[in-house]
Amino acid sequence: MPYFTYCNGKQIFYRETGNSEGEPCIFLHGNTASSRMFEFILPLYQEEMKAVLMDFLGNGKSDRVSSFPEELWIDQGHQIVGLCRALGCDKVNLIGTSGGAYAAINAALEAPELFRKVVADSFDGSTLPEGFGEEIIRERTAAKKDEQARGFYEWCQGEDWETVIDLDTEVLVNYEKNHVRLFRSPIEMIQVPLLITVSRKDEMLANDMEAECRRLHEKNPYVSYKIYDSGAHPLILSRAEEMAELVREFLKNAV
Question: In this predicted structure, what is the pLDDT of residue 121?
Answer without folding.
Answer: 98
